[in-house]
Amino acid sequence: MNAQATASHIGTTAPASTLLLAVDGVTVDFDGFKALNGFSLTLDRGTLRVLIGPNGAGKSTLCDAIIGRVRATSGRVIFKDQDITHLPEHEIVRRGICRKFQTPGVLPGLSVVDNLMIAAKRDRRWWSTFRHGVAAEEKARVADILETIGLADRAAAPAGHLAHGEKQWLEIGMVVATRADLLLLDEPTAGMGPAETSQTAALIRRLVGQHAVLVIDHDMSFLEQLDARVTVMHQGQFLKEGSVAAIRADADVAAVYLGRAKEDTHHG
Amino acid sequence: MDMSMRKGTPLSGPLAGVTLGRPMALSLAVVALAALAPWLVSAYELNLLARFLAMALLAMGLVLVWGQGGVLSLGQGVFFGLGGYAIAMHMKLAALGDGDLPDFMVWSGLDALPWWWVPFKSPLVAILGVVLVPGVVAALFSWAVFRRRVGGVYFALITQALALAFATLLISQQPSTGGFNGLTDFQTVMGVDLGTPAAAHGLYWLTLALVVGVFVALRALMTSRYGTLLRAIRDGENRIRFLGYDPTPFKVVAFTIGAVLAGLAGALFTLHAGVVSPALVGVVPSIEMVIWVAVGGRNSLAGAIAGTLAVNLAKDGVSSAFPDLWLYALGLVFVLVVTLLPGGLAGLVADAGGTTWGRRLKTLIMGEAK
Question: Which residue ranges traverse the bilayer (chain B) (predicted)?
Fold first, then answer.
């Protein structure tokens, strides 16, 4: 089991092809409202992509459709050359996709270290949980992540006692601990100050290479620090793709966002 | 420390946070005292204690299902009844000569034993039936329900309906179940005459040994990774699902263990009380079972035992003095516990550690507290 675990730990460096994820014409229809409308996107192994778009553009729905939280009405999600569109959620995760939710999804009653241990467990089948003891490799990984996310001295504290930013970091740590090949980070800097935001950007840049990362965020300075390719969504559809600079200069993108800005001034 | 108690960390109960060694010594002392009970209390009191300890097995199962797993079952009476009827059917059959029928079947005009009674002639089938029938029923039922992601209040209501249906079925099938009166008038079990003091003592010690064994086993289970994941599923089922775990089997395992313990409790209770009847397995007794655990503290095994003993002792006292008042008293206790004492008796002990006087008291009782 250890050999297998080590193998898949390194697994990300030996890809069969560079293409990791292909979202192929996915439509998600909520009783007539198309949250995603024939949306397509591809992502290579070990790359970073940022997804932006005004509220209601379908960014979170895209993550939901990839991870199986909502089901595509039509279209397919291909991961590592296999169709995962209709797999149960836990099966999708076991194949190597893990998601950080918009509101921190830590387990408040468990300690910080238990949160990470659950995420780091290689064998997630129920009967394997009766064995006592933790694989040395899992322990080392958890210790490593505790250092990285700066929570080493709070390892024994209940996760519910952490500050909001710390919870965000813990959840990023949990997502990383799963060794998923694809990390979906939904607004990882929500509720963070500027210092924490740049630390988060640095953390995410360190993850790239070993993991492919898809980040959803609104914060322009955060996007600039990430310095990745940006995909812009609008009304459930693809709008533009390019570098941060190109997207900032793009007239269509500006129009979409200015449209939103106008509405925002109406609200106050 | 008292926080972690409410959040349901494995080291819960009145012994939480006490330096190691002391709780072990205290537990051993309590068990030793309990083992001496046949010489310390009257035969009547010993019989009561034996019944209550049998019920405590069920209560510890509810700690796993409800406290740790967050699954409220209002149908534990069903599994209690399945275990009780399994052993009772065997005892009815064992007392008969070849070709004879139990008395109530003769009165109802049956001329042959119903097919599902036949296997229970074998003592082995009966003993296996005590744990396997509730276990298999619970596993199939809970798998079907949890797989469809039905939980919370809906699950509680389904289990309550199950308890109602089970009691109604037992009453309506009077010729083969003994109906409202249930099964009673047992003479021997496995060749032992139930009327002797030796049998009463032996059954009491068997029950006590099972309580100790189940306590140790459940404690080990709750501190294993399975226990951590069960609590994690209780606190955030979706988060666990999106970490790659399937929550269903974890909950099914907990529910099944709870049912097996309920079946065991029912069988032992039937032996101690000499009767099993629909009145012991329906909606009201099933709710009472939840109240024992609520009073004791639903995350504490020791609390569940204490709660079961306390509530049932009170029931015995109140209902012999004021027969009509018991249900009101029980309702009042439940309301008070839910509103004022969410951690039950175990929570009270743990919280007491936070105040100066509580700390002194605790130090006095249990030695140095952390």
Answer: 53-71, 124-146, 153-171, 202-221, 249-269, 289-313, 325-350
DSSP category for residue B41? S
Please name the residue ranges forming H helices in chain B. Answer: 2-7, 22-35, 37-40, 43-62, 76-94, 103-107, 123-147, 152-172, 174-177, 197-223, 225-241, 247-273, 283-296, 301-321, 326-340, 344-352, 356-366
Identity (one letter) of the amino acid at A39?
F
Report the DSSP beta bridge partners of residue A52: A232
Which positions in chain A touch B225 (Cβ < 8 Å)? 117-118, 121, 129-132, 134
Number of domains in chain A: 1
B16: distance to nearest CA of chain A, Å?
16
The distance of B17 to chain A (nearest Cα, Å) reads: 14
- Name, in order, each residue with C-beta under 8 angstroms of B61's C-beta and a sequence gap of 6 or more: B76, B257, B258, B259, B260, B261, B262, B265
Q: How far is CA B226 from the centre of its chain?
A: 21
Q: Could you read off the pLDDT of A38-77 as tens digits, one per residue?
A: 999 999 999 999 999 988 899 999 999 999 999 999 999 9
Query: What ipTM was assigned to the predicted interfaces of this complex?
Result: 0.86
Q: Find chain B residues with C-beta within 8 A of A89's C-beta.
A: 241-242
**Which residues of chain B neighbour A107 with C-beta distances below 8 Å?**
232, 235-236, 239-240
| Segment of A152-166, A177-191, B28-42, B131-145 carrying the highest mean pLDDT | B131-145
Compute the average pLDDT of residues A129-156: 90
Please tell me the distance in Å from A12's CA to the nearest CA on chain B. 18
Q: Which residue has the tokens 């029950």?
A: B207
The pTM score is 0.88
CA distance to A242, B33, B195, B271, per residue, from B39 (Å): 86, 10, 18, 20
Quote the domain boundaries for residue A39. Answer: 3-267
